[in-house]
Amino acid sequence: MDSLTDDMLAIVLGCLNRVVDRNNAGLVCRRFYDAERVLRTEICVGCEMNSPRSAIAALSTRFINLSKVKIAYPRWISSMGNQVDDSALKILSQNCHQLSDLSLVFCCFITDVGMGNLTLCKRLQSVRLNFLPCVTGRGLLSLVSGCRDLTLFHIESLVSVRTVEWLDFLGRKGNIQSFAVKKCRCVGDLELRRLGHRGWHNLQEFSFEVDLIHGIEGNTYGYNGRQAVLLNSWSMEDTQVDDGPQERFPYLQTLSLTKSLSQLGTGLYSLMFQSSSLRHLRLDTCIGLSDEDLLMIAHNCSQLSSLYLRAPMGHLHLHPMNPLLSDVGLLAVAQLCSNLETLELSVWEFDPSPVFSSAGIAAMVENCSNLRRLILTSAIQLSAQVITAVFRSISLKSLELVRCRLLCFEDLEIVNNSVLDELIIRDCDDPDACFDTLRRCRRLRCLTVDNCPNVDREGLVALADVVYYNGTRIH
């Protein structure tokens, strides 16, 4: 080992991906131990720390160049002992001078004081906070006002945050590039305007998810801002945001809206129509989304390369201001978004009101000239028309079917020159019809079958070069 150069030693350590392997190497060779002390730049700790304060102190002292730290307690219970608290976070901030990326997940002992301690990290650029029940809006204000170089800020399930003044400071310098707010009931369309034009202008990634709660007598309540709105009888005029950000968003490339509530061209929906560089769009159960929205997306987002679309439940379309989506908007996207490569369509299981027809899905596949990957989740009817379009496509490489309850291929016209080489089937009750079809087609490169009952494992081997069954490779 003594004859190895420092560069070669770094390459050897880079090949050791598991922590236990790195630790064993350090015990065997002193040079490995000393090299890892300098080369180790990230750690992930949590329930395995018996004494969090002393453990954080020891780790931050040993690894002097730590730049990325994740502290997570996803399955923590009180019998496991203490968690990392404010004092441990202060030790981390004082010792890790290179710290630029910090993630805190299910840390129940960290309060606003701990958020203030993070201001000691002058190089901190990325912060992810997931379920910190003791952190309030005052703690976020201390964090974003003290850490002025933040470019990524993601928060989720911060149940104690009741104020939004921190949004003003977050957008004041215009440095933020990736921003995510999920399941934080105090933050809605109206509050997000406080990010300011400078904050919105440089944004490259934005994700927003509303927390929906099912209330009494089957009514669904959506928290959009601080007011709860009864979706079965809400009025769009009550949630209009006509004076939202009017400046275009030239750098926004990734947009994800989940359970959002808005009206055509207003609020967060306006982001889709003013972002010409948008490439990745996810619309999950967006209340108020209509064919007109999809038409505007098709006209304004010509660079779109991936689209995830999950329609709301059918009973939410009963209000005339929230019309049912149809094939019209889907076809507009297919025809005008020529760069679309990945498409995922999903509906709610057991929804009595189907959104997209088999003919619409088939037409979508036929009109997307560059479509590489298609994912269909909980499709009401997956007919032979759709599968024929899949096999006839000149670009589609991968097809994934998840919880597709009806597979009907009796009249399927087989096309042997199909370019499809990967098929993934998950949670389908009776995929035998699909497998019978595959036996008449060109052999696949890869076949994955997960959680599908009554499947002949030996019969799968003849369908593809590589076969995975319930997570295990069998061929």
TrEMBL record:
CDD domains: F-box_AtTIR1-like
One CC-aspect GO term: SCF ubiquitin ligase complex
Residues of the signal peptide: none
Any matching Pfam family: F-box_5
Organism domain of life: Eukaryota
SUPFAM superfamilies, per database record: RNI-like
InterPro entries: COI1_F-box, Leu-rich_rpt_Cys-con_subtyp, LRR_dom_sf
Any GO BP annotation: SCF-dependent proteasomal ubiquitin-dependent protein catabolic process
Segments forming domain COI1 F-box: 2-41
Gene3D superfamilies: 1.20.1280.50, Ribonuclease Inhibitor
Protein name per its UniProtKB record: COI1 F-box domain-containing protein
